[in-house]
Design a protein that fits this description.
With 139 residues, the protein is α+β, with helices and mostly antiparallel strands. The chain has helices at 49-61, 111-117, 121-137, and strands at 6-16, 23-30, 35-37, 40-42, 63-78, 81-95, 105-109. It has a single domain, classed as Nucleoside Triphosphate Pyrophosphohydrolase, CATH 3.90.79.
Length: 139
């Protein structure tokens, strides 16, 4: 059964800058992979994807979030196994980051900075999608 798809979920966590009102995205740095990505993780057995996405955001960033539009699902091979990650736009509503085993740093970046910093091109495409979704909903 090693060809079973790994199911995961995450969020493009965003907030407005208190200084200029500009959009800022939260990226997480995972020392295990030395990469920058959106907060995400594997779903627990029987867990709803959105609940898992919000749990992962809280675990990795320390922030609570209000979910918005569902974004694209990414599919790729991870360690030779198919992986499917569902993403949502989610506005940070509170909390604070503390380094943990999985994530040692987070950054709040403009969409342009986030695209440059993200390790995987598939994650960069989600930034464009988020910006469009927020413009569409007037956020």
């Amino acid at each position: 059964m090693h060809d079973t798809t790994v199911l995961a979920a995450g969020c493009l966590l965003w907030r407005r800058s208190p200084l200029d009102g500009g959009l800022r995205l939260c990226l997480v740095h995972r020392p295990k992979y030395d990469d920058w990505s959106h907060p995400k993780g594997k779903l627990k057995r029987g867990e709803e994807a959105l609940a898992g996405a919000l749990r992962e955001v809280a675990e990795e960033t320390g922030y609570t979030a209000a979910p918005g539009t569902e974004l694209s699902t990414t599919r790729y091979l991870a360690n030779g196994r198919p992986k499917e990650v569902r993403y949502w736009a989610a506005e940070a509503t509170g909390g604070a980051f503390a380094p943990n085993d999985e994530v040692d740093r987070i950054l709040w970046l403009t969409p342009e900075e986030a695209r440059t910093r993200l390790t995987q091109p598939r994650d960069q495409d989600l930034v464009t999608e988020l910006v469009r979704a927020l413009e569409h909903t007037g956020n």
